[in-house]
Write a structure and sequence with these properties.
Elements (H helix, E strand, L loop, with lengths): L1 E6 L6 H18 L3 E11 L2 E10 L4 E8 L2 H22 L11 E9 L17 E12 L1 H11 L3 E6 L6 E6 L5 E4 L3
Parallel strand pairs: 1-2, 6-7
Antiparallel strand pairs: 2-3, 3-4, 5-6, 7-8, 8-9
Helix pairs in contact: 1-2
């Protein structure tokens, strides 16, 4: 597994890096199986240390957690505990524990559009939006249950995916204001 352990304006020592690798290996080995890479970032917010961790698994799942405390090791331990809880829930939700298939995905273009700077009161000169950035994004092929699970683990409000049961068409799952999950299936 590849690690990227960094600090934002903080010097990260060898002892902390060894502690992080040992704990992440233990948690991921216990619940996830085959991770591909992990990114851990330490920063300081006021008088507290903040630890943010993102782990990408071979199944296509991205798990992320954040912890903060007055001590840097305690901040990482809280983050690691949250990550362990997420991975434990992920493993528990899987129906077929023996299915070790990589998630198929296809590439699409995604764009970042400029927002209106005047607050939206004035009529724009043109209805054509200004494109600020263009990038390639991968859309995974998942079941609806896996898509909901991945959205919840990532803490995202919406997830776009290709329904693996139907094989075509883009589906969307999203968190509704009433706390339920919505699913858009374009049939």
């Amino acid at each position: 597994m590849q690690y990227q352990i960094t600090g934002k304006q903080i010097d990260i020592g060898e002892a902390l890096q060894t502690h992080v690798k040992t704990c992440i290996d233990e948690v991921v080995g216990k619940y996830a199986g085959r991770p591909t890479d992990a990114g851990i970032v330490f920063s300081k917010s006021g008088h507290e240390y903040v630890c943010e961790a993102v782990i990408h698994l071979s199944t296509g799942l991205t798990a992320q957690a954040k912890g903060h405390d007055h001590e840097i090791y305690a901040a990482f331990d809280k983050c690691c505990a949250k990550m362990e809880k997420q991975l434990r829930r992920y493993k528990r939700r899987l129906k077929d524990h023996h299915r070790e298939r990589p998630v198929e995905s296809f590439g699409v273009s995604s764009y970042i559009l400029a927002s209106s700077e005047d607050g939206g009161d004035a009529e724009p000169e043109t209805l054509q939006p200004m494109i600020i950035a263009e990038m390639q994004t991968k859309i995974p092929s998942l079941s609806v249950g896996e898509a909901v699970m991945q959205m919840e683990l990532a803490g995202a409000p919406v997830l776009i995916f290709q329904n693996e049961k139907q094989g075509s068409g883009v589906n969307v799952v999203y968190r509704r204001e009433d706390g339920n999950i919505g699913w858009i299936d374009p049939n």
